[in-house]
Task: inverse folding
């Protein structure tokens, strides 16, 4: 499976992998939380130029989940839902874990014409879903449906 | 694809002979040798996993446009029998429930439209909300949303969007029975509040097309098609509501599968027995999602009609047909000589009822259901008709599009949106979009050859070609 630079990435900790119809997103970090934050950044970079969106408003995503893989999917899908409901272009992400409780915050601003748009992500899937640790740190990845 | 794992049954049917794990049903791929050779091995892996699910009847199948998806491949078709513990799978329907194509036929010719095509494209671009982050003008209350979820396109017509004549030419007569709004989460409903009458993005589009070539004059006449005629195809689905239903049930069914004693070959095939409370709950929600998509396409058709009426007074714009791609529907099919009720999953596949089917509108009953294979913005699309053979071959199913040949990641590295838009304009195809990046990902070169897919669909006996439609202008989401 080819991995490599992508015009959407442009920053450390974010990556993409090949998938036939959709897009594989990858987040990497020193902690699982950082990997989740970077995976969220990778996903929203599919939809917008994140650097053009100002973090003027915030939304919270809170959930209970023991399974790390499912926690990633719930985090990403929670963000997609909040972004649509609150009509925000989200650009910055933080998440904390206390046991099986996850508390995430995302910041962004209402859509405006000057924010470059990519394609809408419909949902984060369970396909090629993995959250794992190796000697370089944590990596969180899955395919998102566009 | 590695052909050594396949046995060629005839020129356009291939049986998977070697698979990992125990398949409960045969696995058949439809397509010409070049299409099958070019298909990713993941298609075979994914459709073989489908054949391992409980209660499957008949073969698990991949259509000629199949490509690697999540859970089911895109282009995957499989039927399950509730009387044999058959399942319903959220991964077999996908996030964009009832994504489909509404095809409108106009009384205009290309000669009449050509002088004002820029004005038409600009008006459609201005009035049809398209692209990520765009909202519609229709804001529904909770009660109105619930009415829409049970009423589908019939609800939209009652609200003044289009006419009741449209309903005859929409699957399920515009309203999917058995939708249960209480099975849809509050979050899904909140996501939909500003999204009625929006196109979405990605591979969604609204395209002005001209009938370029007729293959079957007898059927074309019944469908009301003639060379030079202007059509409009609207490709979109159930928007945020469908996406959230998919999200909600994918995780809940994945967790329920273990509790229900189902071993999933792939977690994405999250499913529950059709007759279980979990299965019935998903079914109620998924059917509500279908109604949302039918209502959405009805509203977009109405917006399109208004624009045509403004620019071309006296023009008649009628619905040719409305097909859904991502569904699970209860249908009666003859299996092993017996008439049985089965739940047919079509993920990225079109229903294609043949001549005489009782669910077809009277106008089309003698020739079969219109089937639309939507191509990329630079190539073209096909109108086909369902065949008698398709019933026995694929539970009356056919291809739904050209099918991707290249990932979005690869397309984005290879093409630039602005350059593509200019090249297409030079070739006589106007593109209107809010996302140049989206255009690059949707480059015509990233798709399979639609001519080859349509030909294979016909020669495999799934549907018969009626007309080829050439793009004139396209509003990309």
Result:
């Amino acid at each position: 499976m080819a991995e490599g630079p992508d015009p959407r990435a442009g920053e450390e900790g974010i990556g993409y992998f090949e998938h036939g119809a959709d897009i594989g997103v990858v987040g990497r970090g020193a902690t699982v939380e950082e990997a989740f934050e970077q995976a969220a950044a990778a996903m929203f970079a599919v939809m917008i130029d994140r650097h053009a969106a100002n973090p003027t408003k915030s939304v919270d995503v809170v959930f209970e989940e023991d399974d790390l893989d499912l926690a990633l999917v719930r985090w990403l899908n929670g963000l997609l839902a909040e972004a649509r409901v609150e009509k925000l272009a989200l650009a910055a992400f933080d998440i904390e874990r206390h046991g099986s409780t996850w508390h995430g915050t995302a910041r962004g601003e209402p859509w405006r014409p000057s924010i470059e748009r990519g394609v809408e992500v419909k949902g984060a899937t369970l396909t090629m879903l993995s959250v794992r640790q190796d000697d370089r740190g944590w990596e969180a990845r899955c395919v998102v449906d566009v | 694809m590695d052909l050594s794992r396949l046995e060629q049954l005839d020129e356009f049917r291939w049986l998977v002979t070697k698979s990992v794990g125990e398949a409960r049903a045969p696995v058949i791929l439809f397509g010409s040798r070049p299409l099958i050779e070019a298909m990713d091995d993941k298609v075979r892996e994914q459709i073989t996993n489908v054949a391992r699910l409980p209660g499957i009847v008949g073969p698990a199948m991949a259509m000629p446009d199949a490509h690697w998806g999540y859970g089911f491949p895109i282009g995957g078709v499989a039927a399950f029998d509730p009387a044999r513990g058959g399942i319903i799978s959220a991964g077999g329907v996908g996030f964009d429930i009832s994504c489909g194509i509404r095809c409108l036929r106009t009384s205009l010719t290309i000669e009449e439209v050509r002088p004002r095509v820029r004005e038409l494209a600009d008006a459609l671009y201005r009035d049809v909300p398209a692209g990520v982050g765009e909202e519609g003008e229709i804001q529904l209350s909770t009660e109105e949303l619930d009415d829409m979820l049970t009423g589908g396109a019939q609800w939209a017509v009652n609200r003044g969007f289009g006419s009741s004549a449209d309903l005859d030419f929409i699957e399920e007569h515009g309203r999917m029975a058995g939708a249960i709004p209480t099975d849809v989460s509050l979050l899904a409903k909140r996501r939909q509040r500003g999204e009625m009458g929006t196109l979405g993005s990605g591979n969604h589009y609204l395209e002005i097309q001209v009938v370029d070539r007729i293959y079957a004059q007898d059927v074309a006449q019944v469908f009301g098609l003639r060379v030079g005629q202007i059509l409009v195809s609207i490709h979109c689905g159930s928007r945020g509501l469908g996406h959230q239903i998919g999200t909600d049930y994918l995780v809940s069914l994945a967790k329920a599968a273990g509790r229900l004693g189902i071993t999933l070959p792939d977690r994405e095939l999250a499913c529950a027995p059709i007759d279980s409370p979990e299965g019935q709950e998903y079914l109620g929600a998924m059917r509500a999602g279908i109604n949302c998509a039918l209502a959405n396409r009805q509203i977009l058709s109405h917006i399109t009609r208004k624009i045509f009426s403004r620019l071309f007074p006296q023009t008649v714009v009628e619905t040719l047909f409305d097909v859904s791609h991502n569904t699970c529907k209860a249908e009666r099919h003859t299996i092993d000589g017996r008439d049985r009720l089965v739940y047919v999953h079509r993920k990225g596949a079109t229903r294609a009822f043949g001549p005489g089917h009782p669910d077809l509108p009277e106008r089309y009953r003698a020739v079969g259901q219109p089937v639309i294979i939507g191509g990329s913005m630079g190539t073209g699309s096909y109108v086909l008709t369902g065949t008698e053979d398709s019933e026995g071959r694929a539970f009356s199913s056919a291809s739904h599009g050209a099918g991707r040949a290249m990932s979005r990641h690869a397309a984005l590295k290879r093409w630039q949106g602005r350059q593509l838009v200019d090249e297409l304009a030079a070739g006589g195809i106007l593109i209107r979009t809010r996302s140049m990046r989206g255009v690059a990902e949707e480059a015509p070169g990233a798709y399979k050859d639609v001519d080859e897919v349509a030909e294979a669909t016909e020669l495999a006996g799934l549907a018969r070609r009626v007309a080829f439609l050439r793009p004139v202008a396209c509003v990309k989401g």
Q: What stands out?
A: Chain A has one domain: 19-145. The beta strands of chain A are 14-17, 23-29, 57-64, 88-98, 101-110, 123-124, 130-134, 137-145. The CA atoms of residues 47 and 118 of chain A lie 4 Å apart.
